[in-house]
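Example record for the data management plan.
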Amino acid sequence: MQELLDSFVLYMAGAKEKSYNTIVSYKRDILKYIEYLKENGIEKISKTDRMTVVTYLLQMKKSGKASATVSRSLASIRAFYSYVIASGEKMKDPTANIIPPPADKKQPQFLTAQETELLMAQPKDYEAKGIRDKAMLELLYATGIKVSEIIELTLDDINLKQGFLRCRTLTHERVVPVGKAAVLAVKQYLDKARPKLLFDDGTKCLFLNRNGAKMSRQGFWKILKGYGKSAGIKKDITPYTIRHSFAMHLLQNGADLEAIRQLLGHNEISSTQVYSKILDSRIKQVYEKAHPRA
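Corresponding structural encoding:
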């Protein structure tokens, strides 16, 4: 089987022109599968069948492997069998009709109120970049909008006097209220920082990078991770972490799910109910830990 694997790797690198990382991943997955076969007394690939593959995948899952890892292994094994059969091995493809496991649903990660305050305190409000970053962070947390939405905002999309902004996509538009802290931060940005970043007076984008162009998703992700690190927050902070924090903190303070759904722009209430489930789970944990007869 090792010779088959070696020739498969050469085939993937040559005829299929797969990337180095893809080939390494295939080889690692198939090596583990071959080791499993040998441990179970199977020395020839032709002696395997559908049950062999299914049992191996179930063992991976029972050992704690994530569904994504199991699915990737199945894809590697399937590609290997396809090559083996095409090379002349007389056998049926044992991976045919095997459906990969459904993806694990991860609970959204969010910051505590204290962590949020720490994060908001990181930008330096005496320089243009820091004032801009402070405004973006405050606006994200105040509205729960996505990073793709905040970088597309124009000067016409935000009304500081009345305290709201307008989010527009190809399919719909929604109006989101903006709190006082975010209004003040954006006003300071427009007064003191944006004019210093602006190169072209015709630019309508609200948030600009240091070159005077529209802020990119990647640029803001990098900025956010830097502030998370400087704040000493161990969680992996992304723009979605801020969005999830916005929703959870509203729910914890009494907001109803339908209002949160509208603010987030979810089409279905089921997308918003995940926050309620997390809150219910946490309340139960607190109860079981604190109540003497729980």
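Summary line stored alongside the record: The mean pLDDT is 88.
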